[in-house]
Amino acid sequence: MAFASVGKVAGGELVQGAVPGPDGRARAVRVWLPAEYGKNPADRFPVIVLHSGTPGHTADADLPDVFDGVASAVQQGKARPFVVVAPEAPGGTGHPCDLVAAAPQAVADDAALRAAVGAAFRTLPAGPATWSVLGVDGGAPCAAAAGLARPDLYGAAAAVSGRYDARALAGAAAEAPGAAGGRLLLAAAKRDAAGLASGRAVQAALRDARSRAEVRTSEVVQDYTPERERLRLVRVAVQYLAEQLAK
């Protein structure tokens, strides 16, 4: 699977290719390679799968500064470098992550994506020790669903500034394969009252269901603009993913 460079972003390189989706149809996939990727050809990197909430888009189309948040976590010594994989969201609905959140048990085992990334880039072998998932804004419910429903694929998940179906997520966590529960961070800015309440509802639903999942919230980020808050929230999320994968 060939990937071609589309530019330099956040100190790293952004490349794009096409990979079959779970339905067999080709979809765009963008991969961000951190600055550290080119320094030592022997180094291999953990992966963050970055979900988009906009049909037909990769996440960076709506969140062009998301890679800056990932890079800043590394620059501040809060996380090791990650390769970030951003698949195009499916079409057919205006809000694909709302459908995933309503039926998170249907989260696919995206074997084609993992195989293509592993063949083309120096990533660590796919699995819960090395692969994680992140969603911001509209992509957050996708990340939460993937983390809770498929702990066999993703060792940790972080969802930023999302709105969630707490009951459906609790049900997905209860039916997750394997002995280990998902590990999830729900982060929202201090001023985002609805986002904070939605995250707490997920936490409460999982607690009431006596779920194996470990869910943490982050509610302290505040800054002068929503853009600066988002960068800080992504940085918090990446730090969490790095900490969880290191366990």
Description of the structure:
- The chain is of the alpha/beta class and 247 residues long.
- It is 35% helix and 22% strand.
- It is built from eight helices and nine strands.
- A nine-stranded mixed sheet has the order 1-2-3-5-4-6-7-8-9, sandwiched between helices.
- Helix 6 links the parallel strand 7 and strand 8.
- Helix 2 packs across helix 8, helix 3 runs parallel beside helix 5 and helix 6 packs parallel to helix 7 (193-208).
- The radius of gyration is 16 Å and the shape is globular.
Features:
8 helices, 35% helix, globular, 9-stranded mixed sheet, alpha/beta, 247 residues
The biggest sheet amounts to: 9 strands, mixed
Approximate strand percentage: 15-25%
What is the strand arrangement across the widest sheet? 1-2-3-5-4-6-7-8-9
Principal-axes geometry comes out as globular
Instruction: Determine Rg (CA atoms, Å).
Output: 16 Å
Number of helical regions: 8
Mean of residue pLDDT values: 91
The run of helices and strands is EEEEHHEHHEHEHEHEH
